[in-house]
Amino acid sequence: MPRQATRASRAILITRPQPGAAESAQALRALGWEPVLAPALTLTALPFKAPPHCQALVITSRAAARALPALPLRVIAVGDATAAEARARGFADVQAAAGDAAALAALIGATLRPEDGALCLAVGEGYALDLAAALRAKGFRVIRRVVYAARPSTALPNEAQSALKAGRIHAALFTSPRLAREAMRLLRDSGLQETARCIIAIALSPRIAAALAALPWAEIRTAAQPDHVALLACLEGQDVLGISP
Fold it and tell me: In terms of pTM, does the model score above 0.90?
């Protein structure tokens, strides 16, 4: 059984895949936390062929934006971080929704017309099926293009296992429901699921928080907004861990 985390515990488990994990680590160090990398997925870009006659490219994640070549298309991105990534990749006309699939569908419905052409939805393998259905329900023709694959990691890194066994992990960050599920699988496969009782789980959205309920975390906290700044803000002022019975 792991030790209970203490006031001195400053280690934070990062479950994001690379390169996002490294960005989270840098942000945590700047706030005085010790990052411990435990990516639950590995991302691989796939060949992309742009469909003809699309009025806009819909991008659902930074990983999708990184996998795309710059095209002379209007871009509707799920949130500010994805929009910034698209601009960095050379897209000029980029608009951002408020950070989740519902906001993305609402923005598209409010600013685009189905009769003006199809939408190209750039996604990861297995992702955004609900979004495609919601857009089609609004009358849009949706051409879904899988631009990256997200493969489950096979094991927790040794550093992460050691930190968990030693009871050093104060909190763990989760940025998607699938990441949450895969990270919990890795904990179970390593025989470390009981360490959750000593860890605050911090979720980017209510959907992620719901997925995390499968393990007995000390506490589950949800970011006030679906962005990385709000996610990290959940760490502020948390000096003492409450432990679930």
Answer: no
